[in-house]
Amino acid sequence: MANPMRRVALRNLMANKGRLVLTVLSVLLGTSFIAGSMVFTGTLSKAFDGISDKIAVGVDARVSPKNAQGQGGFGPAGPGVPLSVVDQIKAVPGVRVVVPAITGTIALRDGKGEVVSPTGAPQVGGAYLPPGENLDPDGLKLTSGRAPSGPNEMVLNESASERLDLPVGAKTTVVAPHSPGPIDVTIVGVYTISTDSGGYLGALFAKDEAQKLFGDGATAPYIEVGAASGTTPEQLRDALAQRLPDLNVQTGAEVRQQFEDTINQGLSFLNYFLVAFGLIGLLVGVFIIYNTFSMLVAQRLKELALLRAIGAGRSQVRNSVVLEALVVGIVGSALGLAVGIGLALLLRAGVTAAGAGFPDGGLAVSPAVVITVMVVGTVVTVVSALIPAVRASRVPPVAAMRAQDGGSAQSVMVRGAIGAALLLCSMALLFVATTEVGAGAAIVVGIAGFGLILAVVIGGPALVAPLLGGIGKVIAAPFGPAGRLGRTNVMRNPQRTTATAFALVIGVALVGVIGTLGASMQKSIDAQVDQGIRSDLVLQAPQLGMPPAALSAIKDVPGIGEKTVLYGVPVRIGGDRESTLAVDGAVTSVFNLTRVSGDMTLKAGGILVDDKTARERGWEVGAKVEPMSAVGGAKTTLTVTGIYEAKGGMLSGPVITAADMNTLYPPASGATAPIVTPQSVFVNAADGTPVSDLKERLREAVKPLLVVNVDDEQDLKDQAGQAITALMGVLYGLLGLAVVIAILGIVNTLALSVVERRREIGMLRAIGLIRAQVRRSIYLESMLIAIFGAALGLVLGVLLGVSLVHALRDQGLGSVVVPWSTVIVMLVASAFVGVGAAILPAIRAARTPPLAAIAEG
C-alpha cells in the first residue's frame, strides 16, 4: 500500500495546482528573509575580509596611542603619537624606514558646488606618497592624470570621482582640520585603492601641503615602520615596545586582525539585527504554514476518511500528508533561497546607493546558507504538517466523513484559560521590569513579550467572540445578509481567525514598540535640550570638527554677548582613557547644571564631575585627580570642586578649564596648529540683539567654512529628530517586510478558506446569493480578521514599548510617549489591508459555479 499512497500524495499535489502554489508561497515567505539576512551579512563579511587583508600591507610595525579607537582602519582618533618619538624609532636596531601618517577628515564641494554630506564611510584626506616612500607600493595606482605637486592640487579615489562628478581637471573647494579657511583646488589625478568602497572619499595632496592641512606639527595619528633585512616584524615590535612603553606597538598582521575584529564586531550587531527580523519572519511563516496545513487537512478529511475506509492505515494516511509537506517544503525552501538572494542583492544595492560605505563585491552564497535555509524550511514545513496529519489519522472514517472543522467550545475555553495564565505571568514580569533599569530589565521585557505572544497564540481564539462580537455586528449591519455571513464566518472558527491574524499581530506589535520607543526618544531629547542648554545658539561641525578658523570668523560679528568654547580633551586617569571636556568661559552661562554637591563655578585647578562618574571612581568634593595628556605625558593635579547630576544631555563627564587643558597640551615646539581643536561654541545674544538676527550673521560669517552649523534650540531638536527618523525609517523598512508577510498570509489563508468552503459557497449561490454579495462577505470577513489582529498587536506593542522605555530610563529616556496618531492610523489601515488582502479570494469565491460546487460535495 506504500507505493499507491505515495502515488496518491504526488497526484494529489499535481491535481490541486492552486493549493500547491499557496502552500509553497507560505514556505517561501517563511524562509526568504532568513536567506536574505544570511546572504547579505555574509556578503559584507566577505568583502570586508578582503579589505582587511590589504590594510597595512608592507608595514612591519605600527606605533599608535594607547587605548585609541579607530587606528586599525582608515583614520585617526584624537591626538596621536608625538613626532618627537620619530628619532627614537629610527635609533632602534632593525628599523629600515619610518613613515609618520598624515591624514585627517576633510570636507569639500561636489561637481555641482554642494557640500558633500557624510555617508558613514570614511571621508579623509592625506598625503600622496610616491612608490619610493610608500611601504605598500601596490596599494595605490593612478588611473588617469598625474600626482599632485603644488599647493592647490589634489588626487581623488575613482569611486568618489565618479560619484561626485569631479573628474581630472575639475575644480572644487576643500576644508581640512588645520586649513586657515576654504582652499580652492584642482583635481589633477584619479587613483584606485584596495580599500575603496561605495561611499569612501580619499583626497590626497602633495606631502608638504598635506602636512599643513592635516598635521599640527607636533603629532601624527600613527607611525608606520619598515623592518631592515633580517629583522622579523615580531622582533621589531618587541624592540619598539620596549623603547616606547607609553605607546601601542603592533605588527602589520596585528593591525589587520584588529581591523577585521572591529568590522566583525560591527557586522555582528547588524547580523543579529537582520537575523532577528528574519526569525520574526520565520515565526510568522511557521504559523502561516501550520495554519495552511491545518486547513488543508480539515478540507481533505472526507478524502482521507475514504482512503481509510478502503484499507489505508493510519500511518499511511499520515505519511501521505507528510510526503506532500516534504515536497512543498523542498520546493518552497528552494524558492525562498532564491528570493532571499534577490532581497540581499536589493539591500546591498540600496545601501550602496545611499553611500553607506560598504565595499563592492559579489554575493556570498555559502553552502552553509543553502543548507540552513533548506533544512529549516523543510523541517518546519514537515513538522507543521505532521501535527494536523496525526490528528486527521486518528479521526474514525465515518466521523471524518461528516466532520466539520470549527473547533469545539470546550477547546476554546481550555485554550483561553491557558492563555490567561500566560498573560498574568507575562504581566507580572513586565511589572518587575518597570521597577528596574538597564540591560537586564530590557531582557526581562523581551521575555515577557515572548510570553505575551504565546498567550495570544494559545488563548487568542477565546478573544474572538468578545472582541468581534459587538464590533462585528456594527460593521456588518450596513451590508445586510452578506455582512452577517462574513461575521459568521469569522466567529464560527476562532482558531482559524486567530491563526490568520497572528502574522498581523506580530507586525503591528513591532510597529507599536518601535513607534513608542521613537516618540519617547524624541520627547526625551527635546526635554534635554530645553532643560540642559541655556545658550541662544550653538556652533558645531559634526562632519569635520570645528576648524580653528571658525573662532576667527565669528570674532568680530556684532551682537555676540557671552561666548563659551567647549573642547574635547582625551586624557588618561589612573591608566584609563577618559573623554574630558574643557571649557573656555563660564559653564553656568550656557548649561543648566543641577548641583549635587560642591560649587558649580569652575576655576583653574578645579574639576567638575557628574554624579555617575563620581560614584564609579569614588570621588567626592575635595578629592584629588591627576589627569595625564594622551600625548607627551604632561600631568596636572586638579581638585573636585563640584558634582552635578548626570542627565544624559550635552554636558557629561569630567569638566576642566581651558587653562588646565593648555597645561596638559602645551603648544609643542614646531607645532603649526593646536593639538586640541574646539568642539563647539555656545553663544548668547547681547542685550537688544534679536537671536534670529545674530543667527543669520553667524551663519553668513561661517558659510565659507562649509561644515559649521549655527543652531538654535529648535534646530538641535530637529537634528536629533532627523537622526531618530532615519533610524526609525530603517526599522520601519524591515517591519514593512513583516507586514508584507502578514498581508500575504491573510491572502493565503482566505484563498484556502474559499477552497475549503467551495460547496458551502455553491449552495449559497444556488439559493440566491449573488456574486457581489459573496465578494462583500469575503471582504468583511478579511476586514474583521485584520482589525482583530491589529487591535491585539497594538495593545501588545504599546504595552511592550512603554515597558521598554521604563527599562531604559538610565539611557536618558525620561519621557514616555504613546504615538496615538500611529495607533489610530494602524487601526484604520488594517481595515483597508483586510479588504485589499481579500480581493483575489473574493473574486474566486464569487466565480464558484453553484451546481459544480454542490456536486463536488
Automatic annotation (TrEMBL):
<keyword id="KW-1003">Cell membrane</keyword>
<feature type="transmembrane region" description="Helical">
    <location>
        <begin position="321"/>
        <end position="347"/>
    </location>
</feature>
<feature type="domain" description="MacB-like periplasmic core">
    <location>
        <begin position="497"/>
        <end position="700"/>
    </location>
</feature>
<dbReference type="InterPro" id="IPR003838">
    <property type="entry name" value="ABC3_permease_C"/>
</dbReference>
<feature type="domain" description="MacB-like periplasmic core">
    <location>
        <begin position="21"/>
        <end position="242"/>
    </location>
</feature>
<feature type="domain" description="ABC3 transporter permease C-terminal">
    <location>
        <begin position="276"/>
        <end position="397"/>
    </location>
</feature>
<protein>
    <recommendedName>
        <fullName>ABC transporter permease</fullName>
    </recommendedName>
</protein>
<feature type="transmembrane region" description="Helical">
    <location>
        <begin position="730"/>
        <end position="755"/>
    </location>
</feature>
<feature type="transmembrane region" description="Helical">
    <location>
        <begin position="439"/>
        <end position="464"/>
    </location>
</feature>
<feature type="transmembrane region" description="Helical">
    <location>
        <begin position="367"/>
        <end position="391"/>
    </location>
</feature>
<feature type="transmembrane region" description="Helical">
    <location>
        <begin position="412"/>
        <end position="433"/>
    </location>
</feature>
<comment type="similarity">
    <text>Belongs to the ABC-4 integral membrane protein family.</text>
</comment>
<keyword id="KW-0472">Membrane</keyword>
<dbReference type="InterPro" id="IPR050250">
    <property type="entry name" value="Macrolide_Exporter_MacB"/>
</dbReference>
<dbReference type="Pfam" id="PF02687">
    <property type="entry name" value="FtsX"/>
</dbReference>
<feature type="domain" description="ABC3 transporter permease C-terminal">
    <location>
        <begin position="734"/>
        <end position="850"/>
    </location>
</feature>
<keyword id="KW-1133">Transmembrane helix</keyword>
<feature type="transmembrane region" description="Helical">
    <location>
        <begin position="269"/>
        <end position="293"/>
    </location>
</feature>
<dbReference type="Pfam" id="PF12704">
    <property type="entry name" value="MacB_PCD"/>
</dbReference>
<feature type="transmembrane region" description="Helical">
    <location>
        <begin position="817"/>
        <end position="840"/>
    </location>
</feature>
<feature type="transmembrane region" description="Helical">
    <location>
        <begin position="501"/>
        <end position="521"/>
    </location>
</feature>
<keyword id="KW-0812">Transmembrane</keyword>
<feature type="transmembrane region" description="Helical">
    <location>
        <begin position="783"/>
        <end position="805"/>
    </location>
</feature>
<dbReference type="InterPro" id="IPR025857">
    <property type="entry name" value="MacB_PCD"/>
</dbReference>
